[in-house]
Design brief:
This protein is an alpha+beta fold. It contains 32 helices and 40 strands. It has a 6-stranded mixed sheet, covered by helices on one side. Strand 25, helix 15 and strand 26 form a beta-alpha-beta unit. It is elongated and about 125 Å long. About 1% of the residues have low confidence.
Amino acid sequence: MLGARVMRKAGWDTHGLPVELEVEKKLGISGKPQIEQYGVAKFNAQCRESVWTYKKDWEELSERIGYWLDYQNPYITYSEDYVESVWYLLKRFHEAGLVYHGRRVLPYCGRCGTGLSSHELGQPGVYRDVQDPSVTVRFRLAVAAGAEPESFLAWTTTPWTLPSNFALVVNPGVDYVRSRVRHKLSGGEFVEIVWVAKARAEAVLPKGFEVLETLPGSALVGRAYERLYDNSAVLLPNNVVEGASGQGERHRVYAADFVTTEDGTGIVHQAAYGVDDWEVATRERIATFLGPQQDGRFHIPVFVPGTQTQVVPVQTWFKDADPLVIEDLKQRHLLFRNARENHSYPHCWRCDTPLYYFPSPAWYIRTTAYKQRMIDFNKRIRWVPPEVGEKRFGEWLENNVDWNISRDRYWGTPLPFWVCSGCEFVQAIGSAAELASLAGSLPAGFDNHKPLIDEVVLDCPKCSGKQTLRRTKAVLDCWFDSGAMPFAQYHWPFGEGRAKLAEQFPADFIAEGLDQTRGWFYTLHAIGSFVTSLPDAQLPDGPTFKTCAVNGLVLDKDGVKMSKRLGNVVDPWAMIREHGVDAVRWYLLSSGSPWQPKRFDPEGLLEVRRRLIGTLTESYKFFSMYARLPDGFDPARDTIPPPQNRPEIDRWLLSRTQSLVAEVRRAYDAIDLDGACHAIEGFVIDELSNWYIRRNRRRVHKSGKGSEKTAAFATLHAALEAVALLVAPLMPYLAEMLYARLASGKGSVHAALMPEPDETLVDRELEASMRIVTRIVEMGRALRERAGMKIRQPLRAIHIRSSHEHSLELLRTPFAREQILGELNIRDFGTLSSDDGKLCTLRAKANFRVLGKRLGARMKAAATAIEALEPERVAILRSGKPVEVQLAEGPVEVGPEDVSVTVESRADFDIETDGRFVIFLDTQLDDELLAEGLLRELISRVNALRKKAGLAVTDRIRLWLDAGRDPLLAAALGSQRALISEETLAPELVLGGTALGSALLAEELDLGGGHVVHARLWRL
């Protein structure tokens, strides 16, 4: 709608563990061994078929909700073209020296048999509060025979790692105490000597401990201790740290700055399952050993040193080893303390299995090498909201680590790295043609997935053909597939892909959930930031996307995340069938900022249908009903008065329409959909329907044509057409219906251009005047309500005071006067003058209980400033908005909840004030006013009878009215026959006497105040 062509290409992310897990469930198998037993070729064929299970459902729902994409030409991540583009990208990373194969501790899922990238830990629901063991363990030092036992105390919440302990670490700059402690036992007491950090002694040791010696951590480095378990049984050659020659001795104390005294004992147990532990092992060149392997299970039993006592059997799941280890330590008096602790623990986002950290061989992209480029590019992205880019995403980039791109699974893009079995040379392949050229030929029916891809063997160019290159077994992290989408969807850089990408790159905006700041948003950014640095890429040097709109989660009406388990999932099809697509879309888009979690309450859809959709539909029906009449409106044939020649109420609506266009366009440009919704909703309900249409009904009711009536139709038509265009991105179906009927022959609203604001039609003074009018009317209605005066009862006068001279000038215009008096049904202005402050004033006082918690010592100064606020600013607080007060230390925002507001009235009659205006009404009624009120009530009741009788708006009637013995009412009827006839379309009006014939409808109308009239009507 802005004149640009955007390729709305659909896409299918088809690789990854979620697909594999679905197929495992379908086949009734579980885990990698059973997959390989079933057959990788057959398994991947099932995966390829499985990804299309929900294709039809997704396409139908997408089309129905107006999420229109090109599903005839989608990109598919498993397609040969897509995979080839991904291979090309990986080769370019490799050629730049940014790909390496290493071993690194990373979160690992034993159930899935693969590691997770750091950004995968940012997925929703990964971290969960669980209760785990919390144990403090004695690591025995060698002491002379007969001496008191002496131990280092170390704390851990992962007892299953203790069989793999290879060292203890202390902070060299922290003081440690050697203390004697006494334990009371049933048979006496047990005395021992233990080492802990001085800062942790009070928290860890029992009362009455005796400090024998204090030393810095550096003095403890190098001390040896007894191993907890028989390590020779679990030491495997392939678990040695890469590059380590074994100089570092196991079961000694080493120094590390990461050790703190915030919790634990200040002495940290080291096993190869932690990032810090692995760095210590690498730095000190210590050969390590592992208990649980890549499937999360112990492959070799764990024994008590020097015995054949088995503690942990083979195939024990790592979490199940905790109680076995704890019981063994207890039996051997090595358990100093045993407790349970609640803490946040990571789980696999795919299968919900608890993760563990594992030093796994993996392929990495060295994203840290161009971290600063990503940081700089991020500053050029417009994030909605900004804080996601500045904080969540920005901080993620600041702490960026190299990207683990390999997965030890089956259904995924095979990594295009062929490795020599001799010299470890790596050949990166960038296309199927390149692979065929190097291999000489490819297997029959070749598919660039496992297992056929693994049959391709190459000669090693470094070994003169004496050794072979075989593809690494790993497949690619499916997040790389997702992040490669801007390039691979067009098969870049092959064929026409380079030209197609150049047309569309970078993206104007992307939108996804908040969780994708560490998922898709990151992978797009990481890949794009590298590719745009390549001179031959011929792409703008900048980020992959200009704007990122972040979506929040949809919760149930109570703020709980939806889940099938809780039974609080809302069926979108049911909502669409009951409420319609437009209501669902509007409700989701208008209920708060897009990035905030949304509580989905079906009752809210009813409110959308009633307030907005109902009002807009009824507004159109009003227009079309009268426009279709013979003396109605035809924009193609009627002579429409130019805007400057129309009444002020028309020029006001035309001005407001153009201001709305500007406001909504600004909101769209800012991706402020909530703001656009509220602007449109306020205009349609408050200004178009509740004001303009209601105030101008008489103009379109009049018989015959005339310039004033035509102007009203033209003004209403222009406003409705503008609204249809503005709501098209938000409510596509209602917009299409309105536009087709209002702009017949112009085609689809979705192919039309979004309107540009016409500044020549904007009258800001007129709009300001109407804002004042509506404010006075709101206050006047409040006064009438308190006085029990119905709006149909005319009053003699309204009195207005204001301290703003310009406001008074606007109120003195004929336009403002006509609107206020007509809307409030008042004969005239009484007084319209400056406010001398004698009637009332608004005052604010600080709410010490609320504000004191926030301001502390500044509370007294703030209270003084609040009491000195001008009435106008107090009125802002009274309306529910905050204001700023100036203190010596700077400005402080004060909200409505921080103050109490009082109206101090000096008058002996009812007044209404908002700080800017003070108004009061003359509520004294005489017979003339009472008669006019009865007449208005009568006309309303008769028109209600017309509707009840099923008459069309154009049907004329014969009307018989009898006021009985009510002289006031009889006089009013007699004096206003012409008005009654005109307002009720009753050219034949009979007052009193006998009503002849059977009437279409006959009723007794109670007009209030004891006044009753008998009415009968007939269709003419």
